[in-house]
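Researcher: I'd like a structural prediction for the single chain below. Treat it as a standalone chain; there are no partners to consider.
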Amino acid sequence: MPDANFTDQALIEIASGSPQSSSALRLAAWEKIRSSLRPGQQQMADWKGGSLAVSAVPGAGKSTGMAAAAAGAIARYQLHQRKALVVVTFTRSAAANIKAKIRKYLREDLSLPPSGFVVHTLHGLALNIATRHPDLSGLQLDNATLIAPNQSHRLIRTCVEQWIANHPRRYAQLLEGRQFDGEETERLRRQSVLRTEVLPDLASSVIHEAKSSGLLPQALRQLSSHATDAYGILEIATGLYEQYENLMRERELIDYDDMILAALRVLENPSARAVEQNQVFAVFEDEAQDSTPLQTALLEILATDPNHTDAAPDLIRVGDPNQAINSTFTPADPIYFRRFCEDCSTKGRLATMDQAGRSSRIIIAAANFALDWVNRHGLRPAVLTSLANNSGQITKDKEQLPFRPQKIQPVPDDDPQPDANPEPVGLGLELYTPRDIHHTAKLIGERVVSLFAENPTAHSAAILVRENRQGKWLVEALEPICRQHKITIYEVSESDRRSHVPVEILALLQFLDRPHSPDYLKAALEVLVQRQLIPTQDLNAIAILPEQFLYPGPLDPPQSESVLKARYLCCSILRARMELPQYQLISFLALVLNYDQAELATADKLAERLAKQTAGNSSMAAILATLIEIVSSERFEPVETENLDARYTRTGQLTVITMHKAKGLDWDYVFMPFLHENVIPGNFRVLPQTQFLGDFTFAEVARAQIRAALHNQFPLPDVTTAWEQAKYLKTAEEFRLLYVAMTRAKRLLWMSAAQKAPFTWSKPENSDNRTPCPVFSALKRQFPQSVIGH
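Model: Treating it as a single chain, here is the predicted structure.
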């Protein structure tokens, strides 16, 4: 790294290679950029090497600060592609966003070429390293196929069946459970539960948790010797993990954790490590609270100067541990970023971005109160007690608190952000207790209509729900009033997250394979209607007699114009099946469906994936079997060519979205209904069908024991303690999810807990009395002026 004692002016002059007058202009431009930043952002912009932790509150402008700091470093240190700044983000959309901001600062503000930096997702960065050194990484991508298996994936199911076959005595012990009377019907039921639920869930959870933490099967087997439970849960998990790894090698498959492990194998080689480190000036990481231990290790190695290995890595990690909402279903654990912050704090290398201009002051006050209340009163489990001294300060270890004590502060009056801390609409914070869920929908509909009547196209609105079934119910309930008042309602469902392209292509291919099947014909027609290629009509009447629809005879009744359009398109598709080579069918269907650029790219990606997996047997049956597997049990990532988040935050639109999906977004008006205790924090319960094993779940106990080992907590917790710890972590994360949802609102935060609501949203018609979420009840006591009558 160049001498940090140089002045910024001198360094920019060197970087520009221009006359002093141009250098002075750039320096003035940089000072203008810096002066537009808030204090925490300025600390990033002033960075001149070493490690820096940045703990940022929601709405503090993390990406803006990081982009400005990146542009400043590129100008200050004359960075170029052979010695570049590496920026790492969590998602592809975030990567595109920060890349655009850095380019803007360089090109428009500093008049410098937009080079000297690269932006990657963590897995993209790891894959680049692995592919540059295939002999060291062990990844041969020409032959390997990337998969993202979950507990229903065929690979996981195969692991389970193989483990059962190889361990009949251990499996018999599981069938016995706590007690068993030998009744055959009960035995068959337990076999089904173990094969389809308990063991697949254990395999999926433990494999991902262990692998992403650097624990290979042999290390996990050694760890299992420290566990003392009667079932030997970690030993079972180790056997499943070993079967999984064997199958992955046999079938030449890799998963996302393999990318990180492969990159780390490369960096174990001294010469390869030096090559990679010499190309990296520094690493800036966003959303650091969601990193796993292996991902953190990868970034720290890359950020280390090979000539000064004893010095701190040139690494800026930016995150918000209070927005860590993925740790109960991914290996991410906010404890690692908290420790990084505390370590940097002791060295004077912690920047705090606590000013945020997103929300009005009443919403900020509500979010701060929720954070403080949960830390003091929200969690008192038997295994982790929360104590407060006389001065009101939490005395418990900060790592164990649900939230890092850090309050959001409004920005100063002279903040450059336009409309910072906007004036509230209505009361700003509105708390309702409707009679039931139908009354809830009525109140939301009336409020949305009144808000959009005042600002029909200027503002945006969203309803944040805990699960997709709540959203689907609300969309159906609100659709009439939204249609009446011409308000667009947009539901962001699970299917939208997974990409609709494989589902639609599957429906049409199944129709091509069996055109006389009423079910397949109807599914294909539904796709064509959804794509607005044929008119909406009674599809059941068409599909019930496929031959008559496709090949009407002279004695059949005449077809209507809408049916004729549908038949013409279906027959054209069938003709292509006969005339085109099979490998061109997916591309043809993508064109028929009028896919846009991103959808066409996703279809091409799907076709390539299918060709690779069916090599040697490219029959239609093999293609359909593989495609069914992708659609039913795996997340297929679409190709993104634009900022897809923009479609969720359009003005004049009411978006229905889950709280998890809402992270990183904001709206003028945010509605949060159904805030009940059984939803947030929820009940960490054991399903009735698995209770024959005990009052705990294998997957959660194993995860808790693995995390205890990673944190050097020995002896490992027993089953009861591990289950209590898992419940604690789940409850803490649910409260953080509520906090994230609250901080999405800019002008109005509307919250409600109906007196009657369903216990489970799979049966919304079965409502009874429900206890409100404890945070909602506390908010009502703290902000009585915001409580609106039933």
